[in-house]
Amino acid sequence: MNATLIDDRRRLVMPPELPPRSAVTVQQLDADTWIVRRHKPDSNLLVVALPRIKKLPSDPEWQAIERRMVDYSSKNVPPFEE
After folding, report:
1. Which residues are CB-neighbours of 14 under 8 A, at least 6 positions away?
2. How many other C-beta atoms are found inside a 10 Å radius of the C-beta of residue 12?
3. Which tops the pLDDT comparison, 10 or 59?
4. pTM of the complete model
């Protein structure tokens, strides 16, 4: 894709194949070179339907593991100050 047109507001005019307001990333390689990449939505998505669960069953063994994970990860969190 060669985009050689720039309008009066220094906006790059993209080719008509690119839909309006498409998400793009602009990466500068050097003083005169930029790469413009279009972000396409992921097509490798998998949808899994789960039954609606309102309350999880009590599992003391798993709750003990969760408590240890929280205690370990909260050691590095600074205290909250307002």
Report:
1. 1, 3, 22, 24, 36
2. 13
3. 59
4. 0.39
The two structure tokens encoding residue 52: 């609606």
The answer to whether the beta carbons of residues 36 and 3 sit under 8 Å apart is: yes
The answer to whether 62 and 56 are in contact (CB under 8 A) is: no
Q: How far apart are CA 69 and CA 14, in angstroms?
A: 49
Q: What are the residue boundaries of the structural domains of the chain, listed by start?
A: 5-38
Backbone torsions φ then ψ of 78, nearest 5 degrees: -70, 155
Q: Quick check: 12 and 3 in contact, CB under 8 A?
A: yes
> What confidence tier does 61 reach under pLDDT thresholds 50, 70, 90?
very high
